[in-house]
Specification:
heterodimer, A: about 220 residues, mainly alpha, 11 helices, elongated, B: about 220 residues, alpha/beta, Rossmann fold, five-stranded parallel sheet, about 30% helix
């Protein structure tokens, strides 16, 4: 069972780095949004530095959505979903493997790239590490919540937009705790640990619910 | 290496798609060493029946069982090769084979020593490490069929298995099917072309031949 899980994880990772996989697009998209902000709000370093954590989190959230619409849709279209549904690996674990592959090719990269992109927004050096840490802890929740929407719309032709509309409101708690943890690291009433632990809890719950709910959605008859 | 499954039982299956009843109270059972060819005009419910047998579609009524079940769900004893081939254009054939084998994680089918011999069987060795997107329709179809060899499952469910295959590949598939039946496997295939495979009984879906079948006579 571990072998099947790892094989599926590996296949999805290979697919995402090969032509048409689009993992580099996620990073470029992240960079684009972040680069647009100084043009839109003006080159005031104080203002930018204050809103930088929020911008980076929103950009990460949008970049995560980018690859999610194809998470299950590609498999539903070409028939590999049928095989996954008939495999000895439980569909919940198959969904978990696909979520893990998606996170490794998006959330993890975003967390690593965030400090560098923070420079564009004159993010305070003291906030760089905490920001990366919150993205590292929080992006699994984005992937997992997004997976539910992706599974529900897997068989729809233009499911991506609908899926985004379905899952964005559910991502709000993650966004709130992600940004507030970064703000807390810069000083303020609450210690950094409190919102970070909440963020971790949200991620853990989302991973379990996401695997279970997307498997249930994928089992619906076509 | 005999298979565990003894018989595949379809018990009073009814399939309703939209407002149309495709078939009602369809019952049959197939014992091992035997197969069933589903025939009938387009839209009569052949693919739906295969997907119900595969556990991918819930019948409106009735159930599918494999006896004795050995605590393995029916779907996990079937290998379904549908019209959609389940291939990824950017993966190579040998990557597909090793992925399928890892997903199956079961004992090997007879005559499959390693990944390359599975590709040799359908003459795909020359393309083992080129992207699947470069293969022709027939070659893609052959690659999809090698999945039968990657998971040693007793029940083969094939939707239009001869589509796109040339004469040689069709003969090769016939040989594989014959060996599978010899090993104690079961085959259900939907096909418009007549299948001259051994031990296959014809079931015309949607025609009133269920009366005979519902008496639960073995088909072969």
């Amino acid at each position: 069972m571990t072998r099947a899980f790892l094989a599926l994880l590996r296949r999805d990772l290979i697919l995402s780095v090969r032509i048409g996989g689009g993992f580099e697009l996620v990073l470029i998209f992240f960079l684009m949004i972040v680069a647009l902000v100084p043009f839109a709000v003006g080159p005031d370093p104080n203002l930018l530095s204050r809103i930088a954590p929020a911008i980076l989190w929103i950009a990460a959230l949008l970049a995560t959505l980018l690859g999610l619409d194809r998470l299950f849709q590609a498999d539903a279209e070409d028939g590999s979903l049928d095989m996954l549904r008939m495999a000895r690996l439980p569909l919940e674990l198959a969904a978990l493997a696909k979520m893990a592959a998606h996170w490794l090719a998006s959330g993890l990269l975003l967390a690593l790239a965030a400090p560098a992109l923070g420079l564009l927004l004159s993010l305070e050096p003291a906030a760089m590490l905490p920001l990366s840490l919150t993205l590292l802890v929080g992006t699994p929740a984005l992937t997992a919540i997004g997976a539910i929407g992706a599974a529900l719309t897997a068989r729809m032709r233009r499911g991506g937009l609908l899926s985004s509309i379905l899952v964005l409101p559910l991502m709000l708690p993650t966004l709130i705790f992600g940004v507030s943890a970064t703000q807390a690291a810069l000083g303020g009433g609450v210690p950094f640990r409190t919102p970070l632990l909440m963020l971790g809890a949200i991620s853990l719950i989302a991973i379990v619910l996401g695997a279970w709910a997307s498997a249930a959605a994928l089992r619906m008859d076509d | 290496m005999p298979f565990l499954a003894q018989r595949l039982i379809a018990d009073r299956l009814t399939c309703v798609r939209g407002e149309r009843t495709l078939f009602a109270d369809l019952s049959f059972f197939i014992e091992n060493h035997a197969g069933l060819t589903l025939t009938g005009p387009n839209g009569v419910g052949k693919t739906s029946l295969l997907r119900i047998l595969a556990g991918l579609l819930q019948p409106s009524r009735g159930e599918v069982r494999i006896e004795p079940d050995h605590d393995i769900p029916a779907a996990e004893q079937c290998c379904y090769i549908g019209v959609r081939d389940g291939l990824k254009g950017s993966l190579t054939p040998s990557e597909h084979i090793s992925f399928w084998r890892a997903m199956a994680g079961e004992r090997r089918s007879r005559g499959l020593e390693d990944d390359s011999s599975a590709l040799e069987r359908f003459d795909l060795s020359d393309f083992a490490s080129s992207p699947t997107a470069w293969l022709s329709t027939g070659q893609r179809r052959r690659l999809a069929l090698t999945r039968l060899l990657c998971a040693a499952r007793p029940v083969w469910l094939l939707d239009e298995p001869l589509n796109g295959l040339d004469t040689w590949a069709a003969e090769e598939l016939k040989r594989l099917a014959a060996r599978h039946l010899e090993d104690g496997g079961i085959i259900v295939a939907a096909s418009h072309q007549p299948l001259d495979w051994p031990a296959m009984t014809v079931l015309a879906v949607g025609e009133p031949n269920e009366a005979r079948l519902s008496r639960r006579e073995p088909l072969a």
